[in-house]
Amino acid sequence: MKEHRRVSNRVAQIQKSAIHEMTRLSKEVEDVAFLSWAKPTADTPDHIKEGAISAIKNGLVGGYSENAGLPELRQEIVQKLKRDNHVEANPSQILVTVGAIEGLAAAVMALIDPGDEVILPSPTYSTHIRQVVIASGKPVLVPSIEEEGFALDMEGIRSAITAKTRAIMYCSPNNPTGTVLSEEQLRELAQVALEKNLMVITDEAYEYFIFDGRKHFSIASIPEMRKNVVSCYTFTKTYAMTGWRIGYLHADEELIPQITKAHIPFAICAPVVSQYAALAALKGPQDCVTAFRDHYFSARNLMCERLDRLEAIFEYQKPRGSYLMFPRILMKEGQDSTTFCKKLLSEGKVSTTPGIAFGPTGQGHLRLSFCVPNEEINKAFDRMEAYFK
Ligand SMILES: Cc1ncc(COP(=O)(O)O)c(C=O)c1O
Asked: Is residue 207 in contact with ligand 1, taking CB distance under 6 Å?
């Protein structure tokens, strides 16, 4: 097509995001019940804002920081990795990034050559797929085992490995399914990566939102994996800092200068004002994180109770983490998740995200977010009960 000649093939092949499309359509519906965004609705806690305000007042934010980020922030991140992730690191293994997203993109750019294959257990966060495509890599989607709560299919992963496979990329807790990969599964995955000499790129954006006594496990805490992992983290979810665009990654110190080469052309450095806010977040009280988690836990329970009342319409795996879930649509019309979600929006006034947005294994599902007040969940489900009656 003519239009495509003006843009690269890399970009031309990327589909518009179904999430943004649903957001656009939702704006046209008055008083919509909104369950389609994976963005905390709470505001950033005051002590974090104060950290940014005092940095502004003290004239600290007008210039660039070091490309890798403020040394004092990297030092705090090292402490956090040790305390919460059981990862032994030092500041030269940290790169502060523009959210987890830019860290993931820089990691993919630094590791993937055109034609390299990247295995992604699926359904998965659609941006990961796009990041591989934009690096001219080939995403290889390996379906997860839905009946086992979307567990990794280790056999499937093993048999998807070819001579061109370069990396495995996953998020845990998962967007869109809320699956928390167990330590046992991740140790098995690490074994495969070591055997085949593959890199593992992790997205641990929801690391603090885990329920039912499950534990977050960082694959980088396995000492043998030191050279094989790039782990990406963010302040976005933990501290309700979506708009500050601040995250970081951890990798072997030989890799950091290489990933930084990919980071500079996109960002130079992460926003300095946000780096000061992040510093305040790490140094300050952590009760906001517990409060967010408690809220998501009660919202998860409420959503599951409400889904139980719609058992003829949806079947679901209980999410053990994140603030997202991914029910299967049992009705025949659900086979095309986009049409189903658009109809539910225009006729039922409930905004959800079609499962197909998360790869072909997402077809026949929809994603529901419970990072909203409980009233919003009740409003959405009251409407769905009336709509599906
Ligand atoms: C799995 C996952 N990773 C990363 C992000 C975005 O993170 P950030 O705002 O830190 O770029 C999201 C946002 O929804 C997400 O769900």
From this structure: no
